[in-house]
Amino acid sequence: MDKILHPAKSRGTANFGWLNANYSFSFANYFNPDRLQFGLLRVLNDDFVAGGTGFGTHPHKDMEIITIPLKGAIKHKDSMNNSGTIKAGDVQVMSAGKGVQHSEMNANSDQELNLLQLWIFPDRQNVEPRYDQKNFEDKLKPNSFTNIVAPESDDPKEALWIHQQAYLHLGEFEEGKNAAYTIRKPGHGVYVFMIEGEAKIGEDILKKRDAIGIWNTETINFDLIQPSKILVIEVPMN
């Protein structure tokens, strides 16, 4: 088993007043040659957006974009004529493909928005842009991992799909429980992001916003030290 530990305090940061951003990988003005990506996971941003502000209309191309609000709600609008609100408990996917523009604003003027946004390289380019979102609040089973994003080729019934052999799972666990994640495909690795809580993975203890990348193994075991919410991102390593 190979691994790389990314403590929360090692992330890149930027504070623009309206936006307090935390970058797991090189992004915008933060560049670290040792933190370019993990496999085909290119971006994992942990953003805090002040009330009534947000990201104005901007373009994307050839990227699978997954957005997970943790607190508050996002007002979304894009060039595919999609508009609406994505709130905590929802997950949004967008295939930028041959080109799309969108805006992401804090839907509330008096409440901070906290969101995770991930970018994953697609397995094909210049596809027709697409958008989808789904609420998973009632689908998360206690003390287990729930699949929230899967490849299109898997024809997922419950999860959202993207143009890549990648799997995202969310899990909410009680203190003292044990859990395991089995990697779905050979040649894949897993990036574990501790949203909340504390867990032991092998010899490493991860706390809130810590992360660990693991590859060249089949199963990852978790010992829950505190009540925890965990995001598991499985991606091809090349």
TrEMBL record:
It comes from the Bacteria. Residues 13-120 form the Pirin N-terminal domain. Residues 154-235 form the Quercetin 2,3-dioxygenase C-terminal cupin domain. It holds the Pfam family Pirin_C_2. InterPro entries: Pirin, Pirin_N_dom, Quercetinase_C, RmlC-like_jellyroll, RmlC_Cupin_sf. Belongs to the pirin family. This is Pirin family protein. It comes from Salegentibacter chungangensis.
